[in-house]
Structures are given as C-alpha cells and as structure tokens.
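Human: I would love a firmer grasp of how sequence relates to backbone shape in proteins. Could you go through the record with me and say what the backbone is doing? Here is the record:
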Amino acid sequence: MTSDGGDPYLRKQATVPIQAVKPTQVVKGRIMVQTAKFRRMGVAISLVLAASLSVVWIALEPVMAESPTDQLGAMADAGARATISAFAFVVSQLAFIIAVLGIAHLIADRSPILANIGGTIAVIGGFGHAVFGGAQLVQLGMAADEANHAVYAGLLGGGLPWPLMILMMAGTIGTVLGLLLLGIGLLRAKAGPRWVPYTLWAFLLVEFVGTNFTEWATLVSGLLYLASFVALAVAVWRSPVALWMSGTAVTTAGISAAPGTGSVAAGTSPAASA
C-alpha cells in the first residue's frame, strides 16, 4: 500500500521533480529589491529637497532692483545670503528633475501618456531653470567685484544672449506645463493625496501670476510647493517596492504587483513590500 492511496494522478504528480531555487537567483532578487528601494528613497528625498531648497532660495534672495547697477549693489550687500540663495536654487533644480521623473514613474501605469509628456516637459523646465541659476552665479561674481560694477552693469544692461533667453523661457514654460500635466496624471491615476494636484495648480497660479501683484504671493507659492511635494514624498515612501521595479525584476525577485493599482498582490514577501 502506497501513501498515495493507489491514485494514479497522485503518483504522476509525485514523479514531477521540484526545481530548486538557485542561490544566485536569490542574491540577484535581493539586489533588485534593494535597487528598487534606493530608487524609491531617492525620489522621496528629491521631492523634499526640491521644495525645501526652493523655499530657502525665496527666503534669502536679495530684493530685485530695477537697474543692473542697483541689482549688483543689492547682491553685494546681501553677501553670503545671496550666495546661499543662488546655490540653493541651482541644486533644487537637480532635485526637481529627479522628483518629476519619479512622479512620472508613479503615475505611468494608469496615465502613461501624461507621465511621458509631462515628465519630459518638466525635465526641460528644470534644465532651463538650472541655466538661469548659472547666470545668477555669474552675477554673484560680478557683484563681488565692486570696483567694476559700472562695467558689469553696462554688460547686463545690453540684454541677454538669445540662447540664454530661449533656455530661460524653456525653464518657465517647461515647469508650468510639465507640472500641469503631471498634476492631471496624478488625479487620473489616483496617486497620492487627492488634494495634491489642486495644490500644485494653485502654486503655478500664485507663483507665475500672483507674484506680479503682491510680494506675499512669493511666500504663499513657496508654501504651496512645499506642501504638495512633501505630501508626494510621503506617498512615494509608502508605495510598494514592486512599483519601482521592472516586470522582469519583479519576477526574478519573486514578488508581484496588482496591475493598475501600484499595490503588492497577495503572497508578496514582506521584505519586498517594505
């Protein structure tokens, strides 16, 4: 008498060899999970840095003057405050580029078109603003040489080169249009808190329109920007690690994500969904 009770089906199943999991596959799966966690962490940190450094830039930026001579004088008087402000703005754009790519990845499953177009345009906006930040750093060097302010003012008063003008326009247009589309994508994909897209759009309205009417708009726009990006950072940090892996990597690591939801399916290992 056999333990299968004479059932031919059970005997057939018992003869099927069980394929052992190779140690190299286990190691490769763990590396893929750790890589995905690094991506998720990098995006979350970049979201916080992009907004926080922008607030630093706004808080420490010297008051804009009407003439180039007065502007150089204001920057010279501000000293280290102007330097920190300009540096914070430039670094914030690097974090912004990583952040918008992360937002695009977050919504790519349910809003692929908006993710691709919005993410690309936003990256162009971040690059254009980084070029503007570089021009600001050059002006800081001019401001430090107070003996030649008149010469530098003449150069600045002559107008900016057209390539620089194009890139600066790309910074503004790219940032506005990119965040607008990504906000729509967040709304359609139901990713993150529901109020975040509306806060992002309010930021765009206040920053690029409201600042023409009142100085308080700058502070309000900075707070809106900070609130929306920090909320997205929390959403990214809490998202399943499978969302930050390719399909092949998910299979290799032995985890799965429910299609279209960004949530880990049943049976996922705790380490993978952490």
Notes: The chain has a mean pLDDT of 82. Residues 50 and 92 are 5 Å apart (CA to CA).
